[in-house]
């Protein structure tokens, strides 16, 4: 049985008051436990991406096809660039939309700390810097401790079902299988992120969320791409 921690909205205006909760979350991550957390899109579940055991647990509890990789949330561009190759288009998209609701599919670096199971043995990886104060603070603390500032951030739902947009929804599905659920109320957009494949010269839209195709194309055109 896991723990559910509810964070009242008033504490989100002064995260220093609840920093101890983030430290607990980081300890859970580093000890190989699973967490659920709010993001700026939908609720996510995840853990240490360097742990093959954590990866296996996530595929199992989500009933996820192991031929489909898991997306990662990272603290900033610096952490992302440790594990992925950014072409010019990917760089300008990250600069414009991170932190935010855009996931980039990128080429994995050949020498990589991320186990192949995370990306379903593919040579690409999905990355995003979330615009949510809770998960972003957790990522920053990981980095400040000299650890990789990233966690697996897959949507909190059984594969093929609708994603959870509140901590209460996550608890109904996963309280018995996740070690810690952080509930800060409803997520910002309640819509999964836009996913763009940036591995080729021409981008490919894999999923459309809050950030629409026209906005991205017009932005890239303004930048000469």
What does this 3D model show about the protein?
β11 and β12 (204-207) form a beta hairpin. This protein has helices spanning 19-30, 52-62, 77-83, 88-97, 133-144, 167-174, 213-222, and strands at residues 3-6, 35-37, 44-46, 72-74, 84-85, 102-108, 124-128, 150-152, 154-155, 180-183, 194-197, 204-207. The chain has a single domain (3-222), classed as DHBP synthase (Alpha-Beta Complex). The model has no long low-confidence stretch (mean pLDDT 95). The chain is an alpha/beta fold. It is built from seven helices and twelve strands. Helices cover 31% and strands 20% of the residues. The strands form two sheets. Strands 4, 5, 6, 7, 8, 11 and 12 form a seven-stranded mixed β-sheet that branches. α1 (19-30) crosses α5 (133-144).
By helix and strand content, what is the structural category?
alpha/beta
- The fold-level CATH name is DHBP synthase
User: What value does the average pLDDT take?
Assistant: 95
Highest-level CATH class? Alpha Beta
Tell me the fraction of residues in β-strands, as a range.
15-25%
The CATH architecture can be named as Alpha-Beta Complex
C-alpha Rg (nearest Å): 17 Å
The DSSP helix count reads: 7
Helix and strand sequence: EHEEHEHEHEEHEEHEEEH
């Amino acid at each position: 049985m896991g723990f559910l921690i509810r964070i009242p909205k008033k504490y989100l205006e002064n995260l220093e008051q609840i920093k101890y909760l983030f430290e607990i979350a980081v300890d859970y991550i580093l000890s190989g436990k699973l967490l659920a957390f709010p993001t700026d899109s939908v609720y996510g579940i995840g853990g240490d991406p360097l742990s093959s055991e954590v990866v296996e647990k996530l595929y199992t509890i989500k009933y996820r096809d192991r031929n489909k990789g898991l997306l990662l949330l990272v603290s900033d561009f610096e952490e992302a660039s440790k594990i992925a190759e950014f072409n010019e288009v990917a760089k300008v998209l990250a600069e414009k939309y991170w932190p935010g609701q855009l996931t980039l599919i990128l080429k994995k670096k050949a020498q990589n700390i991320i186990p192949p199971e995370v990306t379903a043995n593919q040579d690409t990886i999905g990355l995003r810097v979330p615009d949510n104060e809770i998960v972003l603070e957790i990522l920053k603390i990981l980095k400040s401790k000299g650890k990789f500032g990233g966690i697996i951030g897959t949507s909190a739902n059984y594969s093929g079902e609708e994603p959870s947009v509140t901590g209460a929804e996550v608890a109904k599905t996963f309280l018995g299988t996740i070690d810690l659920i952080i509930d800060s109320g409803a997520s910002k957009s309640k819509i999964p992120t836009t996913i763009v494949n940036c591995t080729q010269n021409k981008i490919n839209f894999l999923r459309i969320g809050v950030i629409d195709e026209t906005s991205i194309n017009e932005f890239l055109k303004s930048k000469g791409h």
